[in-house]
């Protein structure tokens, strides 16, 4: 099925995301975004009155789009709860390509939210959506009998997110002791212990 054409606004936001990921948020300028999007600076200002508004909207756009893909409707393919969780672990680590780009943008949002309290509700909203998704995967396994029936779903979801964030950052900065595969093994092993299953069950 052919993808729907992107709107001008979306094209500008995508261009801004590309530049944020490549150059860092502080070096992104309206003129550079316009050039990358194939638009005039006047057109960019038509949609975004300030540079700050454009950058904030670009970060939100990136995470909401990724969220729709990742946290939306489950796959039609039959999956066990362990298979679904294993897939989720892989999708939440900075694998080369689009996932690594998402991670760079996520780190930029963290830094910006630390410096600008007005962005903290945006980050909190994205984290809440992420947490609901992880908790739903764990709950499904507990209810089906694949995972321990007495598992504290919310607590294990928080553990999963902490592991993914911590190990993911180390993989992103090329820590030789924690590449993506090592991060995946660490997360899978710790979660398997929490859920009462073998670590191999969470190996994708």
Short description:
Helices cover 70% and strands 0% of the residues.
Layout of secondary structure:
Layout: H1 8-23, H2 30-37, H3 41-47, H4 51-71, H5 81-91, H6 98-115, H7 120-144, H8 153-172, H9 180-195
Helix pairs in contact: 1-2, 1-4, 1-6, 2-3, 4-6, 4-7, 5-7, 7-8, 8-9
Structure description:
With 204 residues, this protein is mainly alpha-helical. The chain folds into two domains: 1-72, Tetracycline Repressor, domain 2, CATH 1.10.357; 78-204, Tetracycline Repressor, domain 2, CATH 1.10.357.10. It is 70% helix and 0% strand. It has nine helices and no strands. The protein has helices at residues 8-23, 30-37, 41-47, 51-71, 81-91, 98-115, 120-144, 153-172, 180-195. The two termini are 27 Å apart.
Count of alpha/pi helices: 9
Order of helices and strands: HHHHHHHHH
Number of domains: 2
Instruction: Look up the CATH topology of the largest domain.
Output: Tetracycline Repressor, domain 2
Low-confidence stretches: 1-5
Class by alpha and beta content:
mainly alpha
Report the span from N to C terminus: 27 Å
Major sheet: none
Helix content: 55-70%
Radius of gyration: 19 Å
CATH architecture of the largest domain: Orthogonal Bundle
Mean pLDDT: 89
The top-level CATH class of the largest domain is: Mainly Alpha
Total strands: the figure is 0
Shape from CA axes? elongated
User: CATH homologous superfamily of the largest domain?
Assistant: Tetracycline Repressor, domain 2
β-strand percent reads under 5%
């Amino acid at each position: 099925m052919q993808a729907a054409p992107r709107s001008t606004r979306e094209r500008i936001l995508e261009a801004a995301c590309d530049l944020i990921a490549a150059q860092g948020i502080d070096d992104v300028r309206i003129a550079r975004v316009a050039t990358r999007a194939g638009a005039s600076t006047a057109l960019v200002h038509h949609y975004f009155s300030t540079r700050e508004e454009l950058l904030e909207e670009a970060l939100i756009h990136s995470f909401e789009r990724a969220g729709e893909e990742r946290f939306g409707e489950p796959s039609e393919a039959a999956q066990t709860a362990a298979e679904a969780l294993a897939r989720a672990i892989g999708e939440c680590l900075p694998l080369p390509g689009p996932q690594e780009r998402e991670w760079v943008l996520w780190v930029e949002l963290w830094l910006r939210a630390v410096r600008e309290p007005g962005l903290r509700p945006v980050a909190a909203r994205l984290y809440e959506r992420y947490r609901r998704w992880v908790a739903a995967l764990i709950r499904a396994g507990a209810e089906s009998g694949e995972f321990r029936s007495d598992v504290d779903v919310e607590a294990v979801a928080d553990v999963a997110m902490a592991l993914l964030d911590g190990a993911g950052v180390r993989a992103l900065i090329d820590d030789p002791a924690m590449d993506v595969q090592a991060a995946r093994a660490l997360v899978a092993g710790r979660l398997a212990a929490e859920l009462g299953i073998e670590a191999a069950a969470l190996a994708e």
